[in-house]
Amino acid sequence: MIGGFRVVAEDATTHARAGELVTAHGVVRTPAFMPVGTAGSVKGLAPWELERLAPEMVLANTYHLWLRPGIETVEALGGLHRFMAWRGPILTDSGGFQIFSQASRRTLQEDGVVFRSHLDGTEIALTPEGAVEAQRRLGVDVAMALDVCPALPAEPAELQRAVALTSRWGARCRRALPPGGATLLFGIVQGGLDLELRRQSLAELVPLGFDGYALGGFSVGEPAEAMWATVAEVAPLLPAQRPRYLMGVGTVADIVRAVAAGVDLFDCVIPTRNARNGLLHTTRGPVVLKHARHRREANPPDPQCDCPTCRSCSVGYLRHLYLAKEAAAVVLATVHNLSFYLALMRRLRSAIIAGRFPALCAHLLAETQEGG
Amino acid sequence: MIGGFRVVAEDATTHARAGELVTAHGVVRTPAFMPVGTAGSVKGLAPWELERLAPEMVLANTYHLWLRPGIETVEALGGLHRFMAWRGPILTDSGGFQIFSQASRRTLQEDGVVFRSHLDGTEIALTPEGAVEAQRRLGVDVAMALDVCPALPAEPAELQRAVALTSRWGARCRRALPPGGATLLFGIVQGGLDLELRRQSLAELVPLGFDGYALGGFSVGEPAEAMWATVAEVAPLLPAQRPRYLMGVGTVADIVRAVAAGVDLFDCVIPTRNARNGLLHTTRGPVVLKHARHRREANPPDPQCDCPTCRSCSVGYLRHLYLAKEAAAVVLATVHNLSFYLALMRRLRSAIIAGRFPALCAHLLAETQEGG
Which residue, of A1, A148, B121, B216, is most buried by count of CB atoms within 10 Å of its CB? Predict the structure, then answer.
């Protein structure tokens, strides 16, 4: 049944678990990483390339699609799935993160937020009801409630206001999109690094009966260690029978630690953005294409990787394409980095199911420190 | 045997022919269009995407690879085929065209040409022997002789000098790369729109015994009709038992007319450059993605095309990706435009073999006039 979430395995010594979330476009096997397709496209990837990578779910952005090409246009072109030629599950961010990232361009009020478009300055009023309605019309599998996501560090009063408004907006979102439909709705826990506020936020959201719970407001300026400590405390408090989603995170180390804390879903621009900047993630650490030592390196980026990039291209060739600003550099690096992230998630899931999670966890954290 | 060229069918009423050129990396079935991979990459295409498009041969550029990453680097990375992960035949331009296109950056002398790099101003001396040696080291299947290619219109004296120097350089190229090796060498006929000069150029080159003959110096500023008229006269004079290559041409109309004149090989940036500029070639005429009327067009670019882009994407989606400057727009449009060009060449070849070439020729020329 759509919205059903089943924990298929739990690690004995950590909070890590493997799960299955049923959506209208298929089952999402967790822990899972969602590639970011902000404007309806994972940057550089043809739809069939994304299909071959086979992520469990992809993320798109309501705010960006609202501005361009417009929700009506996506609807007219058959909804977001047909639009971007992706048959699997889609989750959309509500626009809440842009309240944070476009702070200079918006006015925050009780009713909602008014943006000036970063494209042409047009004013756009985003309310909780409007954000949810837009996501329903896009036809996504998982909609996110509209939240208020302060940058860190933030004053306690600002964090309190953000939590309170996120709760009121969360209630309005749930009313606008009641349970039982094809579009699931996740609530977003705020509260910064303040555990009491995080607990309060959670206590206000859970009675609203969301289909899943997200931890928002991380990776917004705080040290990684502070995030790890807070996620370790808060993630296990999220309802165990619902999927848990840590928004906008993160590095391999972030993900491994969060999975250990019981998080099921992730999204992050790191693999795709790093690809565009010529940084490849590999099991032997990062490969920075601009480094001169890679000029004549005939090996693939990661000898342990079986992605099409590693099967066909040397580091020297990728370096050449990157320096020559060839469009294929983005394609090839993105295919590899996403392959790396998706393989990581499959390894984590298999290890949880096989009872080998703590060992893998230790191995991966040691590896990332070395590769650093 | 490498270098062997067999005419498998000839049209009864035109000079069109279907052929097979044997190279070290496979047989090139002609007439054929070579996608342009200037710097060792067809812009936007992963190697496996190019492999799926399956062009008969691809073109790369000696001048660009010489400057970056350098011939030695390509050699160290296993030669151009392994470098760019392309197993099929490769033809390289010699650098002669850059004598024309980078006129402000070079000094032309009897011995060769001195360039200042468009990347960093470094001086590079390109001689006939050096150009051929570079191509041999790249490991390409077909090397082009170094030629002098004047922009049109040009003074008769300049055209005469270009023809004479091209002949002397051609002789030096052939001496530097004698027949019988793995790398074939094509000579380049110059002479602008002057039929007498073209005949003279050809008469000087044929005794040198090239593996194929190219018509250079077209599509360099002259009206299309003037090119068509000259090619129609000159192409049939090229040795019938060797492949004939019209360099840097062209539009569908150019190609159809040149095939009728007996040309076997083509290369042109039109499909790939137009793709990057949001223009799609289709059987119903050009689709310009920036046009507002395509905003909600749910059809694929070309309903008659079975390329992956047309199988998965609407014009509305492609328009969105183009306007949002998404990297996938280049990938998708390039895949389509090259599919269109390669399908055109297959249709022309099949028609020649089946005795239907004049009918197809008339149909295509009418279509391109309508489509504009």
Answer: B216
